[in-house]
């Protein structure tokens, strides 16, 4: 497969226009660190944003940053850190889970709506994305949004592009709102809770007025090793007050230790990047979203049907599940659980052959699929941009 690396936005537009004229199917990517996610590519050439790099605007006082889509995520993170700021949504690094190499790009964060544990407080990547530039399937350059958030009526192209996985356009530049980095991060650690009790504790913490920025539960086979994690961030005096109040609020769940420093950073990184499941690299990995209080029931249904390991993020609303890489990889049990209890399941890690024969994303009702096909056709009438990456035939 040939690789096309445009020098700039206009070059990208020319490449896409030519591909449309020739019927060339394009696999869109940044640096390819997440190439093994989604349905396998069935395209003629790769269109890479690798050369579209550089921060084009950064105004710390305005809490806004713009960068070309191929800019390494690490460059954006380091630039913000230099001014005591950060991306609010704590984007996950998929490389440990996928075993991939290279540098993730800021464009991929927007295209795949990548978020981490702080999503429960700060929202997803799309909630901080306020501007995009992209090339649609006609080879036209489209600009939407800008440097400030506005309430608009009509089609919000910025939010539509977030999570579209390159099926609607080739991102060339993205603009995010950012936040100051907290002065201190501290974590309450409760040991030995079962899944139901842990989610009850997390729900109580999230329902409190104490601004929890991380809520996860890491089960263990003997339960005594189970860890329930509640993260607080902010000014040190405020963190101290909220820690004490949360300890009182949660005392019925047992004694709570305080975890800080590098140990706390490491455990939240393992939650963010799902490396809790990394030890079994031969297993399939699913990412399941559901109502937080239904997480334990969903897991119980899956575990009754297939051998599995799991952990909870987002207060129980995000469940990472590892299943044997055989048969249907647990798809039948997981899909049945999401149908019964509500939710969406995505197959994150599996061999190409399995990602070709199984639904990678949650199957949608026909009315929703018809809408999806219509949106795809309006942005990419020839169907040349990442065809079939999310759903077969789209």
From TrEMBL:
Pfam families per record: FAD-oxidase_C, FAD_binding_4
Main EC class the enzyme belongs to: oxidoreductase
Superkingdom of this protein's organism: Bacteria
Cofactor (UniProt): FAD
Protein keywords: FAD, Flavoprotein, Oxidoreductase
Residue intervals of the FAD-binding PCMH-type domain: 1-181
NCBIfam families: PRK11282.1
PANTHER family: D-LACTATE DEHYDROGENASE, GLYCOLATE OXIDASE SUBUNIT GLCE
Protein name: Glycolate oxidase subunit GlcE
Originating species: Microvirga thermotolerans
Gene: glcE
